[in-house]
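Hi there,

I know you've been waiting on this one. I reran it after we fixed the sequence typo, so this is the corrected version. Both the input and the resulting structure follow.
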Amino acid sequence: MMEWWQNLEPVTQWFYGAAAFFSAIFLWQFIMSMIGLSGAEDVDMDLDAGDIEAASAGDAADSVASFRLLSIRAILAFLTLFFWAAAMHHAADGNLTRAITYGTLWGLGAFAVVALALHLMRKLAETGNPRLHTCVGTRGTVYLDIPADGAGEARVTVSGVVSHVKARSADEQEIKAGTPINVMRTLGPTTIEVKPVEETEKERGEK
């Protein structure tokens, strides 16, 4: 193995090194997506960081974050295949121009395949997921305490199905588990804004 490596030209060694580097990153991204540490959760983290004013704004942020994630994975696929193809072609005939050309073609093919696959997976997920906006204006119950400056969990009905959804307080006050709440609006595809029922009823009485 060492003899094979030492017989390679420096450019070929560099191609193989870059190929191994980007392969490791691509594999890590793939494993993380399989165990649920990226994708939807990345989107939710981005959304919670800002003050989202309406459901439409949340959907736009979701699309931007998902497109960014898709682009990163497709670019990683391009770089991985580009360097592997370039390394093997350069090792075979030593022509740098042909190696780069073949590497680019293989990389573009990988980019297109990964981008298409991720796009189709996202469409399937959107089709199968209930729309969160259907619970706006309905009542539910706090399932996990909602801290004043963070998110808890509420039990509400989404698209006719009782679901546990991430929830934040509309007035930035703590809401204990078991408290009846009204859903005020959505804060993106996975989070809702809520108020205690007694508080909303009091506000209506004052009007």
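Quick highlight: The chain is about 60% helix and 15% strand.

Best,
R. S.
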